[in-house]
Design a protein that fits this description.
This protein is an alpha/beta fold. The protein contains 17 helices and eleven strands. Helix 9 (185-193) links the parallel strand 2 and strand 3. The structure holds pyridoxal-5'-phosphate.
Length: 476
């Protein structure tokens, strides 16, 4: 019995048949997603019903319906009306590289367990470092997501700056980091994981446009120091998540240098602007960062989860975790790019480098320039459209492809406007033609779009505006 089942599972013919059929299904899915005739971006279902559906499907569903049902029950990032969270519509070639990674399953913890991906990852890292402008001894690695990469960078920062050997001895001093109040919540989470506690997260208020108010840096640093907090790092958001506002990296780099602390840039979303001739000025000063995070699965057209963590000095990438796993790692001084498991949180990781390499090899850096520039330009177009319409109010002028706005109406109180906008967004979700999200900024409820899809046009944005107005009127 066991022999039979294993034979069936590994049948090459079955794999070929299923694989060819799957490619056809996915091509059909991509065609439908981009077609004007198929307006649904999401077929919304409430969690309870969704769970019941899949419980029932496990018992009663047909094998052949599995993938079609998954497609039906999932959000479609390839639909140009997808304008929600910061997740890419992956370039189809990266679905193929993902498949190669899954079949080979080379875990990469040690060189033998991924010779090609280890070397390929190194090539990718060198190429990104060059684009950043790092010129001395740069390095880094790919890892599973911006959240994990930011935590890893802060661990490197602590190791490099704090005198005490915290990794081995724990910390007796009160340690802290500085970050804008608008930063992604993973900075907060990383600090908590590291035991810094609430008082160790020095949150710098944002200025009018939601980027860090750098005029407050000295005051907050001095106040923290007077309470005995030893600050070892400052994080710049490039940009922050909710509004897409870039912190002034140039000012932060000078501050970090003056205080002799680590300068980390969370460029998970918009670090990719290093490739944009038009928008790279937003990242001025990034070259002085000790570490930088860039997500491939946000603004670089790759599937989840694919993140680069780059270091100005690669020695720090090597030093972060000097914990031993004797059965895995040789004691000899080897080339620093091999044996990924020494540097990363993960022991085993996917061959995510294949996506980066395939895009670089087939299309070159110009692909990323074309994409980032187009999407950031499109947000400016959308801004103009909303400014000209008295029914809308923007939270701030967009610096990236993220744009927050709300419906307004004379006579409604702020509380009523909040409830109205929340109801509009819920109605849009249930309708499913467009997918946009929402956020609270300084206590005010906003609708939020991130223009992630390379085929969203001005016309789609016009249709969205029309739809929102119709929905808003129907709720009034
Ligand atoms: C600025 C920023 N940092 C970090 C993250 C977390 O990245 P990931 O989802 O890859 O863990 C996000 C996610 O949206 C982000 O916008």
């Amino acid at each position: 019995m066991a022999k039979e089942i294993l034979k069936t599972v590994y049948s090459h013919n079955q794999f070929a048949n299923n694989g060819h059929q799957l490619i056809d299904t996915l091509v059909d899915h991509l065609q439908k997603s981009t077609s004007a005739k198929n307006p649904k971006t999401i077929n919304w279902n409430v969690p309870k019903k969704e769970l019941e559906f899949w419980k029932d499907f496990l018992k009663n569903g047909n094998d052949g319906d599995f993938i079609p049902e998954v497609l039906k029950h999932s959000i479609h990032t390839h639909n140009p009306r997808y304008m929600g969270h910061q997740v890419a519509a992956p370039a189809p070639i990266t679905a193929l590289t993902a498949m190669v990674s899954s079949i080979l399953n080379n875990g990469m913890a040690v060189f033998e367990m991924g010779m090609a991906p280890s070397a390929i990852e190194q090539v990718v890292i060198e190429s990104i470092c060059k684009k950043i402008g790092y010129d001395r001894n740069p390095g880094g690695f790919l890892t599973s997501g911006g959240t994990l990469a930011n935590l890893t960078a802060l661990l490197s920062a602590r190791k490099a700056i704090v005198k005490q050997d915290v990794w081995n001895e724990g910390h007796s001093a009160t340690l802290g980091i500085m970050v804008c109040e608008e930063a992604h919540y993973c900075a907060d989470r990383a600090a908590k994981i590291m035991g810094l506690g609430e008082k160790g997260i020095i949150k710098i208020p944002a200025s009018e446009n939601f980027s860090m108010d750098t005029t407050l840096l000295d005051r907050y640093y001095t106040e923290a120091a007077s309470k005995g907090i030893e600050i070892f790092a400052i994080i710049g958001s490039a940009p922050s998540t909710a509004t897409g506002a870039y912190d002034n990296l140039d000012v932060l780099s000078k501050f970090a240098q003056q205080k002799q602390i680590w300068f980390h840039v969370d460029g998970a979303h918009g670090g990719a602007a290093i490739y944009s001739e038009k928008y790279k000025h937003l990242l001025q000063g990034i070259v002085h960062a000790d570490s930088i995070v860039i997500d491939g699965h946000k603004m670089m057209l790759m599937p989840t989860i694919t993140t680069a963590l780059l270091f100005k000095d690669k020695k720090h990438a090597q030093d972060t975790f000097n914990q031993r796993a004797d059965y895995l790692l040789d004691d000899v001084e080897e080339e620093d790019w091999i044996n990924s498991g020494k540097k990363t949180f993960e022991c085993t990781k996917t061959m995510m480098c294949l996506h980066w390499f395939a895009l670089l090899k087939h299309y070159g850096d110009t692909l990323f320039d074309a994409f980032v520039t187009r999407q950031y330009d499109l947000a400016k177009t959308f801004e103009k459209m909303l400014i000209e319409d008295p029914k809308f109010q923007l939270a701030t002028s967009p610096q990236s492809n993220i744009l927050c706005f709300r419906c307004i109406e004379k006579g409604k109180t702020n509380g009523q406007l909040d409830a109205w906008n929340a109801a509009i967004r819920q109605r849009l979700l249930e309708d499913g033609e467009f997918y946009i999200v929402q956020t609270k900024l300084r206590g005010i409820h906003y609708l939020r779009t991130t223009l992630m899809n390379p085929f969203t046009t001005k016309d789609h944005l016009r249709q969205l505006v029309k739809k929102i107005k119709a929905v808003a009127a129907s709720i009034n």
